[in-house]
Prior knowledge:
single chain, alpha+beta, Aminopeptidase, 7-stranded mixed sheet, 11 helices
Amino acid sequence: MARMTAPALPLPQSPEYARACAALGHPCRAGKGPLPNGNPLHWQVQVRQLPLLGQVSLLSRGPVTERQDDALDWLQSWRPPGPLLLNAEALPPAALRGAGFWPLVTPMTLALLPLGPEAKMRAALAPKWRNHLNRAEGSGLEVRRLPLQGDHWLLAAEAAQARARRYRNLPPRLLAAFAAANPGAAWIWEARRHGAALAAIAVLRHGHMASWTTGVTTPEGRAAQAMTLLLWEAMRWLSTRGHDRLDLGMLNSDDAPGITRFKLGTGAQAHRLGGTWLRARALAPLARRLPEGLAT
């Protein structure tokens, strides 16, 4: 299938995500069009009422532009009503300080996996990952692809796993809303043996990107390398549907080194974001004078 030509929109910047938020009663604001220099730009924000801050605009992984300078110029000039909370792409801290942003959270790193022809993807796998895949393919697992529904066991299992391991993920109600608002854009890959579920993953499609949001395996599934097989099958299917990039989520080598190795073993590339920043009228003058060492 031919590659899609629409701009690469991360999940929080996608119209699919906006439809899910609207279904939950949290509509987004979005805009796009050429900049004065003719270059394209896309932005999407969620607007929330927060204690002490009032109306806050959340801009996550945007604006989407072809040039970093265009994003910075737009951030300098755009003034929403109330404070702006920015989960930045890879923008220079000094430039964000100059635009009046105050640093809140240090940058995290994502794993972004290029998709393409099957042979090319298989060649890009780390040797150990490829060996695990070969073993899983010969283990007799039954793999099924299912439309994501809110009552699938994966969503409750993921929520329980997140509580037990103390990490945050997209809530099940958002995944269910995404699926309902975007038919055909939310899928589950499930591995079974003798009728028993061993593992499952959920993937959301948005433009020519997709995001792996959820994954749970049992001890039996771990022994059979079920997650390896499920992710590989998702990669193959997404590529045939024209997707060219799969967001595998955050890399955390300190708290989850095994998951980090698993993600990078797919051939994914580490993509460092720009951290979380706040621009508010009272803080902007201080942010511009903040020592460089406190804003990286």
